[in-house]
Peptide/nickel transport system permease protein (Nitrosomonas eutropha), 325 residues
Amino acid sequence: MLNYIIRRLFYAIPILVGVNLITFALFFVVNTPDDMARMHLGTKHVTEEAIWKWKQEHGYNKPLLYNNVAYGIEKFTDTIFFEKSVSMFAFDFGRADDGRDIAHEIQSRMWPSLAIALPVFLLGLLAYITFALIMVFFRATYIDFWGIVLCVMLMSISSLFYIIAGQFLIGKLWHLVPISGYASGLDATRFLLLPIIVGIISSAGANTRWYRTLFLEEINKEYVRTARAKGLSENIVLFRHVLKNAMIPILTGAVVVIPLLFLGGLITESFFGIPGLGSYTIDAIQSQDFAVVRAMVFLGSLLYITGLVLTDISYTFADPRVRLE
C-alpha cells in the first residue's frame, strides 16, 4: 500500500512541474512583460521609459531564465523564472498589483469558498446518488420516466437562471435570506444558504442522470443476477452490491470537484458577493493582475493533481484488486 502511494506521488511531481513550465511560457514568453506593461498603461502612446518603470515596480525588469550580469548561483536565482515561477513551489506567490500579499489573501478567502463548496459537494452527492438509486429501483415506470424528464429540464437551464431566480424569489420577494453579501461567524449562514441551494439544484440534472447510467450498467451484470438468484431483496442488491461496485466511476467524477472546494465557484461567488477565491480570480482577470492569475492557475493545478492522487488511493479501498495490481 505504501509503495503504491509513493509511486503515485512520484507520478504527480513531473506533471506539476510541467504545468508550471507551461504556465510560465504562456505568461512570460507568449505574453512578454512588455505586453503586460502595455495592457496596464494603455496601448496608445506608451513610452519605453513608462514600460521600464512599470516593469521595475512589479519585478519584471530581470532576465527570464539567465542573468548574465549576476554572479554565482544568482545567475539563475536573480531571474523572473526563479522569482515568479519556481518560488510558487514554496507557496511564495509574491504580491498583487495593489501591494497585498497573495498568499495571505488565499488563506483568508479559501474559507468562504469552502463554506459554499463543501456543503454543495457533500449534500449534492448524497442527493444525486439517492435520486438515481430511486429511479433505478423504479426503472421502466412513471417515476423513472418523469425523473428523467425533470433531469433533462434541469440540465437545459443555465446556472445563471437559478442564481437570478433564487435571488429574486427567495431573497427579494420572500425576504428569507439576503440577496448577496457575506458576514463572519454564524451570521454567514444566512448568506450561504441561497448559494448552496442554487449550487445543488443547478447540478442536479446532469449528475443524477450520470449516476443513474452508472447504476443501470451495473444492474445488468452477472453478479447482480447471482445475488437475485440467492434470494436477496432489490434494496440489498442496489444499496449493498450495485452502489459498492459503482464507486470507482463515482470517485473518478468526484476528483473534478476537489479544486472547486478551495477555489470556489467563479460565477456563484461573483453574483452573491462572497469574498472567496472564485471572486478573487474574477477580479484579478478584470483588473489584469497577472500575479494573482498565475497564483490561482498554479493552485488549481496543484489541487487537481492532489485530487488525482487521492482518487487513486481511494481506489484501493473501493476495489482491493487495484492494490494487488
Q: What stands out?
A: The radius of gyration is 25 Å. The first helix runs from residue 2 to 30.
